[in-house]
Amino acid sequence: MSEIRKHYFLDRHCIIATGRAKRPSAPKACNDDIPSSTCVFCSGHEEETPPATSVYKKGQVLKDTDGQRVTGWDVRCIPNLYPALSPDAPEAATSGFEVLRGYGFHEVIVEHPLHGSRLHLFSDEEILLLMQVYRDRVMHYQSQEGIKYVSLFKNWSKKAGASLDHTHSQLIALPLLPSEISVELQAIRHLAECPYCNIVKREKGSKRQIYENSYFIVIAPYCSGVPYELWILPQQHVHHLSVLTDEMLFSLGDCLRYAVSRLDATIPELAYNYMFFQTEGNPEYHFSARIQPVTSIAAGFEKNTGIYINSMPPEIAADHLMDRA
Amino acid sequence: MSEIRKHYFLDRHCIIATGRAKRPSAPKACNDDIPSSTCVFCSGHEEETPPATSVYKKGQVLKDTDGQRVTGWDVRCIPNLYPALSPDAPEAATSGFEVLRGYGFHEVIVEHPLHGSRLHLFSDEEILLLMQVYRDRVMHYQSQEGIKYVSLFKNWSKKAGASLDHTHSQLIALPLLPSEISVELQAIRHLAECPYCNIVKREKGSKRQIYENSYFIVIAPYCSGVPYELWILPQQHVHHLSVLTDEMLFSLGDCLRYAVSRLDATIPELAYNYMFFQTEGNPEYHFSARIQPVTSIAAGFEKNTGIYINSMPPEIAADHLMDRA
Prior knowledge:
eleven-stranded antiparallel β-sheet, 15 strands
């Protein structure tokens, strides 16, 4: 079981997963390489996970029951077996410090039934479906009692924190708005114009743009913290996945697929995280998806200052990704 | 050459090291294992580094000259061969966005002449000398024109970002106060009591304390973001290394050595970063040194929310470190 502890005096939190404590020298089964024949995310292994909360199959949205699992699915959403937060978390122990019980949800979205599938090779139908699932599941958890933020992200490859190599995303629903978002919101409220709308205006057509389609744009941000960082921004002001039409969702998925395919072509087998930045109750916020490849280590200087040293200027990263250099 | 780029609209910065751009697939010599016989930090290899800016030898502080290097030294401070910032950085290119030239200093502190030396095995004299060097070098760079913050840190082991395995620390002098510190300062100014003095009061004797001596205390903080995180705090309000007497410096070094020795005894060969938090011009700030072991990966969730999931409660970490469990 978990608790959400507040920093002694700053608006920052950490999740202490009290039930998972083991010495780091203990074996960690979830980090081992798993051959596909025993991968629990693969089609045919449905019995080996908890019952799915939502199963997408041929245009329908189904649910597992205790006795029977849906097979032949396209996308499968299951509770995380080692959840960071849980809906039935007990009250946190009294400590004299600020703490919340570890209430929340933690779901895995298995993006494809086949073990070897890769997001950048998804068909148009597959990438649209995945974006629809993202929208559905974020909206589902956003509407649960006490949930203030739904974090949607993908860790690709062990170096980026993935414990299983079958392509999947994750979603953690939180009972608080994280400081990363609230700091941005505060800054946005002090500005006359949406700063992200301004970024789109200024970066569109710049040497840092790598792609655009009907509704979205992909840029290597001017202030990239890590090599080959990419941001996907809606060209018009949109604050949350829930307001995207299917046409806009496809446009988003197309950008995500394009970005990942260019990263993979430039640096084969690159590890990356991508994350969705959005907040439902705050229409002044501007939605974005951000991809951060993992090529270097945040070390003492970054942990001391919050300033990242990036040896790859985004202008040159964009040249590499566009095959211009 | 580098530039310091500001985020589009937040008070955050990154350092873009424009002169070091290479595709990540290119070989990185500085990350390879170096046998001690060819280690440039070892005693006897002084000619293979830039001239030292400061050499500590038998109670004296000397300097290399272009033609002659000091040998037989105890601690040796040299300019980083691949500096993140440099005193002769050119003006940054005009971009339409906020940017500073990459002005600053980047120094390596070689802590010991012998390749196999380990900080937690330093003698009393060696640990005191290292703390004196830390104080001297921070004060030296803090007094340089235009320097607003000196980041002092150690990356131990490749997993924590060290490129060479001969024990060393680093110092990067910056022309701005990093947001990590300014956010804390703002919070501190709104409080009636120094929050760190309050932490010392509340954690002293708690189950999260792992050590104390005359002037300092070592705790596993209530809000530990990573397993086995440790903070070293002066018991009386002190804002900066520059105000520490030699007696207090020894007390600090003793805590650091004790903390690292307990980490090493608990998890042999543990990788870690330690960082010094301080700011010279702001006496309301409370000095700390913080040790963050590297046992897990900050992945998509952490990058989305700033909230760390820590599977090791600090109370249990303290038990392990104290051999109580």
